[in-house]
Design goal:
This protein is an alpha+beta fold and 159 residues long. It is 34% helix and 19% strand. The protein has five helices and four strands, in the order H-H-H-E-H-E-E-H-E.
Length: 159
């Protein structure tokens, strides 16, 4: 799908407020409500808008620990990637999992109620996962930026 300036404006406003109603969105981008709705639906159908969700404040719901964990796997263990990929899907503490370059194979973002909960996750689940060789943890002390907003200047079709 070729994106134009109007599409980029729609994406910007929806990222700022996913609950904006269609008529308010149409007013902001100077379109009729029906044209705006058609464009939003086209962006959804093309998979550019992947979904809508509430973003929770982890601290407000009792998750005091936020950590990034690098996991290095043993390559001599058969099916190590398939096994780890399956396991990580079952762990509610893992809110993000990425295959990365460098020394480690994976980078996990882990949320836990407290240090005791975090420690139990690391010792009782992660370290006991078949093929795990090494774990390096970085606990977040303070968040300076955390956003899911993708600026249109970064997008490939941006003018």
């Amino acid at each position: 799908m070729e994106l134009d300036k109007t599409d980029f404006a729609i994406l910007r406003y929806l990222q700022e407020d996913g609950r904006i109603n269609n008529s308010d969105l149409a007013d902001k981008i100077f379109l009729s409500a029906s044209s705006c709705l058609r464009r939003v639906r086209a962006l959804e159908e093309a998979g550019i808008i992947a979904g809508y969700r509430a973003v929770l404040d982890g601290n407000a719901v009792g998750l005091e620990v936020d950590a990034f964990v690098q996991v290095t796997m043993r390559r001599d263990v058969e099916q190590w990637h398939e096994n780890f990929s399956k396991e990580v899907q079952q762990w509610p503490e893992v809110v993000g999992c990425f295959i990365i370059t460098g020394e480690a194979n994976y980078l996990l973002r882990v949320r836990a109620r407290n240090l005791k909960h975090y420690s139990a996750f690391i010792m009782d689940r992660l370290y006991k996962t078949l093929g795990v060789l090494d774990i390096r943890s970085n606990i977040v002390l303070q968040m300076l930026k955390d956003t899911h907003v993708i600026d249109s200047a970064l997008m490939k079709n941006h003018d």
